[in-house]
Design goal:
Length: about 375
C-alpha cells in the first residue's frame, strides 16, 4: 500500500504534504475507543447478600421462614440476569463445563470424600454409598450433590434457555407450564415406590425455579434503568413495602423449601414473596455498591465455594452448643467473611474449583486459529 501511494504521487501529481499525511495515518495505530463495560457492583452486593442469607438460613434461626421466602429465588433471578444465549455452541459448552459442571462435580466429590473419611473413622462407611454416589450425582439427587443441587438446577435452566425456541410465546409457555408440572409432581411424587420429591432432585426443582430465572433474563434488557438510583424517600418506601409483602407472604404461605421442589401453600404467594424480597435486596445493594467493593467482588466470585463448604463451619459452631438468640446472624456474617481469603487462594491456585476459567470469544479463537495455521 505504501508503494502504491508513492506511485500515486509520482504519476498523479499528488503533493508531498498529502502523501505524507496518508503515510502518517497508515503508520499511526488506531486507538481502541471501546470502553470496557463497567462492573455492576450492585449485582455483586446482591450475590453477597444472597449467599449470606443462604448460610444464615442453614442455621435455621429465628425468622428463617421469612428468609427462605426469597433467599433462594433471589439467587435464581440474579443468575438469569447474568445469563445469555450463546451464538456459538462451542462457547456455550465450554462455559457450562468450566464454570458450572466441573466445579459442581469437584466440590461434590470433595464433600463425598470428607463424609466418607468421617464414616470410615466412625466405622459406619458402606460400600453401597460409594457405588450410588456417581449415579445419584448424575441424576441430580441431593444425596450425591448436597448443596450443589442449586448449581445442577442452574445447569438445567441454562440448557433450557440455550435450546428452547427464541420466542416470547415459548418463554411464556415455560413460565406457566413448568410450574404446573412441578405442582403436579409435588402432588404425585411416588415413582417405583420412592418419593422423588423428598429425595430432592435438582431437575424437578428447576420447574419452580424457572419463573425467577427467566424473569432475570428479561430484566437484563432494563439494566440501565435498574442501575439508576431513585429518590431516597421513594427507595425507603419501596423497601418498607417489600418487607411488608415478604412478611405477609411468609405468614400466609408457610415454609418454602425449594430444594425439595417446595413453594409453600400457594404458588402465587411464592412468586410474590420471592419477587418482593429480591427487589428489597436490590434497593439495599444499590445503597451499598460503593462500599468494600474489593471484598464484595471476592465474595460474589466465590459464592460456589461458600455454598459448597459452609456447612462444615456451621456444624462446628453448633457442636459448641452456643445458644444465644439472634447470634446466628452474626455467625453467618463471620462465616462469609472468613471465606474471603479462602476464595482468593482458590482463585489463584485452584481456578477450576471456583469456576474462574474464562472462555475466549469465538472471534479471538478464530483469529488465533488463522495465525497458527499460517493462512
Amino acid at each position: 500500500m505504501r508503494t502504491f501511494i508513492i506511485f500515486l504521487r509520482i504519476f498523479a501529481g499528488r503533493s508531498h504534504t498529502t502523501v505524507t499525511r496518508l503515510l502518517t495515518a497508515m503508520d499511526t495505530p488506531k486507538k481502541n475507543t471501546d470502553k470496557p463495560k463497567e462492573r455492576l457492583l450492585w449485582i455483586d452486593w446482591m450475590k453477597s447478600i444472597g449467599i449470606y442469607l443462604i448460610v444464615l438460613g442453614h442455621f435455621f434461626p429465628c425468622g428463617s421462614k421469612y428468609i427462605y421466602t426469597f433467599s433462594v429465588p433471589l439467587f435464581f433471578l440474579v443468575t438469569g440476569f447474568l445469563s445469555k444465549r450463546e451464538a456459538d455452541l462451542r462457547v456455550f459448552r465450554r462455559k457450562l463445563w468450566y464454570n458450572l459442571v466441573l466445579p459442581m462435580l469437584l466440590i461434590s466429590a470433595l464433600n463425598f470424600m470428607l463424609v466418607s473419611a468421617s464414616a470410615l473413622v466412625k466405622g459406619t462407611f458402606c460400600i453401597r454409598d460409594l457405588l450410588l454416589f456417581p449415579i445419584m450425582t448424575a441424576a441430580g439427587f441431593h444425596s450425591g450433590l448436597g448443596c450443589m443441587w442449586f448449581v445442577y438446577t442452574i445447569i438445567v435452566l441454562k440448557l433450557i434457555q440455550q435450546f428452547a425456541p427464541r420466542r416470547r410465546w415459548c418463554d411464556a409457555a415455560l413460565f406457566i407450564g413448568l410450574p404446573l408440572l412441578g405442582i403436579w409432581i409435588d402432588r404425585h411424587p411416588i415413582v417405583m415406590g420412592h418419593d422423588i420429591v423428598q429425595m430432592s432432585n435438582a431437575i424437578i426443582n428447576a420447574t419452580v425455579a424457572y419463573p425467577f430465572f427467566i424473569s432475570g433474563v428479561y430484566l437484563r434488557r432494563w439494566e440501565a434503568a435498574i442501575s439508576r438510583r431513585c429518590h431516597p424517600v421513594v427507595e425507603v418506601l419501596c423497601l418498607v413495602a417489600c418487607m411488608a409483602v415478604v412478611a405477609i407472604c411468609a405468614s400466609l404461605n408457610g415454609n418454602v423449601w425449594m430444594f425439595v421442589n417446595g413453594y409453600g401453600k400457594n404458588f402465587l404467594l411464592f412468586l410474590l414473596g420471592g419477587y418482593a424480597g429480591t427487589v428489597g435486596v436490590l434497593i439495599v445493594s444499590k445503597w451499598m455498591r460503593d462500599f468494600w467493593s474489593a471484598s464484595i467482588v471476592t465474595i460474589s466470585t466465590g459464592t460456589i465455594i461458600i455454598l459448597g463448604f459452609h456447612y462444615y463451619v456451621i456444624n462446628i459452631i453448633q457442636k459448641m452448643g452456643i445458644d444465644v438468640p439472634m447470634l446466628d446472624y452474626v455467625f453467618a456474617a463471620l462465616i462469609v467473611i472468613a471465606f474471603i481469603p479462602i476464595i482468593r487462594f482458590t482463585e489463584k491456585h485452584f481456578p477450576y474449583l471456583i469456576g474462574k476459567y474464562r472462555v475466549q470469544s469465538a472471534a479471538i479463537r478464530t483469529r488465533d486459529a488463522v495465525l497458527t495455521s499460517g493462512f
